[in-house]
Design brief:
- This protein is an alpha+beta fold and 248 residues long.
- It is 14% helix and 21% strand.
- The protein is built from five helices and twelve strands.
- The radius of gyration is 21 Å and the shape is elongated.
């Protein structure tokens, strides 16, 4: 038993060379909402431990794993919350997945919904004709519609976007994201594929915490126990990311 593990509780240690994606920490804002939903805000255990030592975050939940040095041992946090609130006023990054999320995973030419692996994005004004890869010139398209349009303008191909594309806000993306489960990108046919199970269970550090704002609601503070816990492996599924500048 490691020092500090407590009676009847044995903590397992990991080698520091263990892949970081095996022990990510879900990062919550100071209001206990995830910093982002798509991709889910996850930090590597190294960045998480650093944030704990710098007293930038509060540990909400922990794994039954620990790292140790010759002088001390620390349990790996599985859920942390920032001590200072980060306003969600940054413009969302232009990524393929965020384009899909803005368009609610639907082809903007035929209007049908598809899993992400069956989608691509299309330049309304083709790059061969001077079109740029920007929010206002890119829409989600299914493969048949993308092939039908080809490298032509909408008037030449006979198909046009159902709505004019615009740059979304983070609020809009998060609103759209909450309408889909974390592993929606794996939806195929009429049902979901079996969700990825977490490799390590997390220990509750405390009961569920209430959301601020007087709404009287509460959230679970141990998402690693959720069967839909996304652990890397694809855009939008919660890949381990680096903390934004100024957080560490």
């Amino acid at each position: 038993m490691l020092a500090g593990a407590g009676p009847g509780r044995v903590l397992r240690t990991i080698n520091v060379t263990t892949a970081v994606e095996n022990f990510p920490a879900l990062v919550l804002n100071a209001d206990f909402r995830p910093l982002s939903y798509f991709p889910l805000s996850l930090w590597s255990w190294q960045d998480t431990v650093k944030a704990v030592f710098l007293e930038r975050v509060t540990v909400v939940s922990e794994y039954d794993r620990a790292v140790h040095s010759p002088s001390r041992e620390i349990r790996l946090p599985s859920v942390i919350s920032l001590k200072q609130y980060v306003p969600m006023n940054r413009r969302p990054a232009f990524t393929r997945f965020n384009v899909f999320l803005r368009d609610a995973f639907s082809c903007q030419y035929c209007g049908h919904h598809y899993p992400t692996e069956a989608l691509t994005f299309d330049h309304i004004v083709p790059r061969s004709k001077g079109g740029r890869t920007v929010w206002s010139n890119v829409v989600t398209a299914c493969e048949p519609c993308n092939l039908k349009k080809g490298h032509r303008l909408p008037g030449e191909s006979g198909i046009s976007p159902l709505r004019h594309p615009q740059q979304p806000t983070n609020v809009e993306l998060q609103k759209n994201g909450r309408a889909f489960p974390p592993n929606y990108r794996h939806r195929a046919g009429s049902g979901l594929r079996r969700p990825v199970s977490p490799p390590h269970r997390a220990r509750h550090a405390r009961p569920p915490l209430p959301l601020k704002g007087g709404e009287g609601r509460s959230i679970s503070v141990a998402p690693p126990l959720c069967p839909h816990w996304p652990l890397g492996g694809g855009e939008g599924r919660g890949e381990v990311g680096k903390p934004a500048a100024g957080l560490l």
